[in-house]
Write a structure and sequence with these properties.
Shape: elongated
Helix content: over 70%
Radius of gyration: 20 Å
Number of strands: 0
Strand content: under 5%
Number of helices: 4
Structural class: mainly alpha
């Protein structure tokens, strides 16, 4: 019998994952738009008349992507890299 483990994500991490997912889907639709024509940019369709909100959504998606990148780097670093960083940042005695 296999047991499945799920990562314990905080509400902020869920929000970040949702933003990155929305951004990925939106970019996929923008790419599809190049082949089929029309405006498939969901953010633009939802908030197009209010450009400040549209650009704010883009900014949040970008920040969420950077957050995912930093989190991934921190989680998958080797113990040797962590030890080297701790050794390097300790104050001299």
């Amino acid at each position: 019998m296999r047991t499945q483990t799920r990562p314990n994500l905080s509400p902020i991490e869920w929000f970040i994952m949702a933003l990155v997912t929305v951004g990925a889907i939106n970019w996929g639709l923008v790419g599809l738009e190049g082949f089929v024509g029309g405006n498939l940019n969901l953010v633009n369709l939802l908030f197009g008349s209010v450009s400040t909100i549209e650009y704010s959504v883009y900014l949040l998606v970008g920040l969420a992507g950077l957050s995912i990148l930093v989190t991934g780097i921190r989680r998958y670093r080797s113990p040797a890299e962590d030890a080297a960083e701790i050794e390097h940042t300790e104050p001299a005695r």
